[in-house]
């Protein structure tokens, strides 16, 4: 709670509900566990269930609280209500000094709002990302912006993210540039001699030009996903050395379209979402990545993989500026042209694959923990912020 002095350990509850959040929060959870001055607890909402559990197992994280809210065809309103109600009870009992949330999910926004209602401090990891269009991506853009209004500490991954927060009136003393915790996570997951568990991946010749694909965002439902599938079809038909590995989201709105359009094509492998370790190592062995995901825009450049982003805008402009990522939208010809350029033009490929990754150096979690120490006067050591 706000105010008053503490003699006991500082209690921090880390909250997340989806696989991407779990991947990025796992290194921070492990770092907080090392700090004797912190009483670290974990609450999962299980906004996603199976995919979340895979990450918990990988990083050996055992949640102290599990709201287990996931339902088939759940709505944003339903998720928000369940998170608010579930966390109210936990907060009243536990009385944490701070909660930590990540990024832009509905769990993140609802968790921050629940903490605000109990006057509990909020630390926002991966703060300050913006497209400046409230419906792109939906609902993520408003989730992160509203969370930013509720947060007390803002852990911005880049200088650009910090500048966004300053323009919104956030005090500079409450912002720390930390780099992105996903880079910390990849230090744990990527192995050069990795052997795939998935049998279909075991059969793929990664000496060929394998393109890893994910596409599932709400703003691409319908025509966007259809265009992406048509583009992939043309790319495979026009380039005999190319194979596609498409990790198909389980949502029927996406899955039905993808299997209808690409299900019978040679050199196209339609796989369910893989666990984190399989995904990161697939990315590492692939030639390039095509995605509408936010996280992959950070992860792939760390591995030297060019990324074509299947969106018209991105909240991660740094990678575009540095040249590791290119926005291609969902126009069929544009996607095909840009992919073909990378497939056939070695100079273009090298230019993107060798560009600097602006997202982190593997110690973001240490910086965040140090900032929490400073905030609660556990230590007055200055935080060594990420400089890139």
Write the layout of secondary structure elements.
Elements: E1 10-16, H1 19-34, E2 38-44, H2 50-58, E3 65-66, H3 76-94, E4 98-102, H4 106-117, E5 121-125, H5 140-150, E6 153-156, H6 159-167, E7 175-177, H7 181-189, H8 199-202, E8 209-214, H9 223-238, E9 242-247, H10 252-262, E10 268-271, H11 276-285, E11 288-291, H12 296-302, E12 307-309, H13 317-322, E13 325-327, H14 332-344, H15 346-353, H16 364-375
Parallel strand pairs: 1-2, 1-4, 2-3, 4-5, 5-6, 6-7, 8-9, 8-11, 9-10, 11-12, 12-13
Helix pairs in contact: 1-2, 1-7, 1-16, 3-4, 4-5, 9-10, 9-14, 14-15
Order of neighbouring strands in the sheet with most strands: 3-2-1-4-5-6-7
Main sheet summary: 7 strands, parallel
Note the total helix count.
Answer: 16
Task: Tell me the series of helices and strands, N- to C-terminal.
Answer: EHEHEHEHEHEHEHHEHEHEHEHEHEHHH
Quote the average pLDDT: 94
Helical proportion, percent range: 40-55%
Alpha-carbon distance between the termini? 35 Å
Radius of gyration: 21 Å
Strand content: 15-25%
Structural class: alpha/beta
Low-confidence stretches: none
Q: Note the overall shape.
A: globular
